[in-house]
Amino acid sequence: xxxxxxxxxxxxxxxxxxxxxxxxxxxxxxxxxxxxxxxxxxxxxxxxxxxxxxxxxxxxxxxxxxxxxxxxxxxxxxxxxxxxxxxxxxxxxxxxxxxxxxxxxxxxxxxxxxxxxxxxxxxxxxxxxxxxxxxxxxxxxxxxxxxxxxxxxxxxxxxxxxxxxxxxxxxxxxxxxxxxxxxxxxxxxxxxxxxxxxxxxxxxxxxxxxxxxxxxxxxxxxxxxxxxxxxxxxxxxxxxxxxxxxxxxxxxxxxxxxxxxxxxxxxxxxxxxxxxxx
Length: 278
Description:
By secondary structure, this protein is mainly alpha-helical. It is 69% helix and 1% strand. It has a two-stranded antiparallel ribbon. The longest helix has 25 residues, at 227-251.
């Protein structure tokens, strides 16, 4: 608590005395927040715990900065942010907190039904059951989502958005009965893409490519694989192997543009072998 209070005190002082901090608005901070979030994601993918600690601090600072600006406008402050989030967590976990208050003895498990305020819930014994309850509860919140998919931010990267859309639909029962059934859809979408590519219809090809990618993401979800993490690992693998080729071209005194595809392929395979031996 002292550390959190120290951060808030420093932010207040910077807001009052630093020319850059003085001029910031919610809108001007947004691009920086996006950058800080991606830097946090990079540290997570690299499993760099020290860097992750630093980036978590940057994201936390941005949260506090937004709340400070809102406080200046008489809208809300950081205490409102924290209390609203805590209330939301309690409301969305009736299997833990209902009907007792925080700090009271652990409540007895509840069967499916309605609580004293008429809110539906079900006793959740698995993580999957908790997620399904979560979506139903959010629809019942006073300021909650108006529809199941309205909780998916429109600004999410498309790959992550597709995964979240599918996951939210699953939590209300809209999903394949058997995960193996998804492969027929994947193959169907691939064939439709190939047909449009043969016709050289760019617009329809792009539409079919989207359907195919959506189906592949669906398959990944059903097999409990995160497609965004998987693609990022492949991105990093490609960068590493291509850098290996580039480094050898520099050592040989030959630019990449003068190397043959066969030469680059040979170096690519060398890099791949080195990865497999590590």
